[in-house]
Amino acid sequence: MNTPRTRAGSDGLLAKLMETVRPEFRAEVFCPPRDSPVFFPGECRIPACPTTLTMGRLKLCRTHHHRWAAAGRPADLDGWSAQEDARLRERRQVSACRVSGCNRARAAHGLCHRHASRWNHAGRPLLESWLGRTLYQPPRKPWSAERTCDFPDCPRWTDSTDAPLCHTHHNRWRKHGRPTLDTWYDDLAHRGDPKIRLDQVTPALRLEFQFGLQHRLDEGLRFTPARDVRRAVTWACEAPITSLLDWDESTWRDHVAPPGPGRKRHGHNVVAFRFIADTRFALEHLLIADDPWADQYPRDVWDLRHFALAEGETRYLRFGPIAQLWLRELVKRRCRWRISTNISVKTVAQSLRSLAHLSAHLPAHAAPADLTRARIETWLAALAVDYPDVFTRRATVNSLGRFLANARAHDWQPVLPRDAIIYNDAPPPPPAKPRWISEHLMRQMENPENLALISTPLRLDLEVLVKGCGNEATGLLVDQLVAKRVDQALESRCRRSLSSSG
After folding, report:
1. Could you give the CA distance from residue 343 to residue 337 in angstroms, rounded to a whole number?
2. Fewer beta carbons within 10 Å, N or C terminal of the chain?
3. How buried is 314 (Cβ within 10 angstroms: 0-12 exposed, 13-18 middle, 19+ buried)?
4. Dist. CA 352–CA 345, nearest whole Å
5. CA 7 to CA 243: how far, in whole Å?
6. Three-state DSSP class for 96?
7. Does the predicted TM-score (pTM) go above 0.85?
8. Which domain of life, per UniProt (predicted)?
């Protein structure tokens, strides 16, 4: 329904995507920027925890939320956070060698690499007794002085002056593939940040998701958790597609949430589905941005978002219910003309519904010459049954009258019969509601006790207005009081001016 007709081939879309997607979104693993409120919800309230928060109200990550719940959900969340922060920092601290005075990281048996080697050479005596008679001996040569580990906030010494890391951090660095130290430090600092892996999809589909992420970030209107985008990527991997545009929005909805009994859908991820739907629309708009009318006009459903005209619930103009092709083309032409003259799309949609009702009354094979006055009169009779509300029926009849007048003025359909005219066929509006005040309210107003609560001049004005104007007295009374206050303010200002000048 919404896929561009030309589709510009996959080559056309690929070329536009290559021009549009910025380099920072081209990675196979997308790491959202921390300053973006679209993808990054914030950090856990535990200072030592770099993980993204999950429970927004408590500002806790998933792990610490489970720990807080296991601790009995203490009410003093700040006090519990301080204790948890201290526990986490102590746990991450690299333990020092047990030899007194040695600040190297432990390697085995609670000893650093050098002292563990000496203990082995000594025949592995009882460790406690060996520690009691072993002291740390600092290096004698200046160039062999101890070196502190380069890892952030690590106080331990390295095993040699040439090694930038202590024993513990050197092993961790080696297990991560020996990256450059700056890159490794940055990866560890952001290891708890949300990540979106796109390496499991085809390159073309990956580029579409990267474009969708860029579009969401630039738009900056909706919070999009990374877990929901990952779910959307999983759906795309499971679907037999090569592009998000291969399926329309309804087909995607059936894929992610198959309808059950009664066409009801249960348990689908709405945020993930909206990400796919919005990315589809952005891809369509990218393809037809040069001339949206060339793509939308031949369709039976116009997506007004391509023209930045969607208002509230009025997103589509649907011409499919109009069975007569000549009438459908005529209605399309008029809708395009009315939109170009800045007529509200809600008004255009209401006129379209009126003409769709007329089309349903006409035979499916009806020609323009069949739209006679006699046929219009039978439609008016059917309209009175279908639309009992007077105001709705008036709007529908007037819409057809303006449609026929525009068609003749612009000579859109010369074959229309001359008697295809709407005269004064719209039903008259119902009488206005009575202006008098209800009897029980009048009794309250005429009660002497109630009248005594109002000052005498104001009471006289109120009685005259209410008895003469009914319900409209409220507005008149307000206008009178406002005018009176303005006059008083002007008079007071004039007096002050005269006194100051005197």
Report:
1. 9
2. C
3. middle
4. 10
5. 11
6. strand
7. no
8. Bacteria
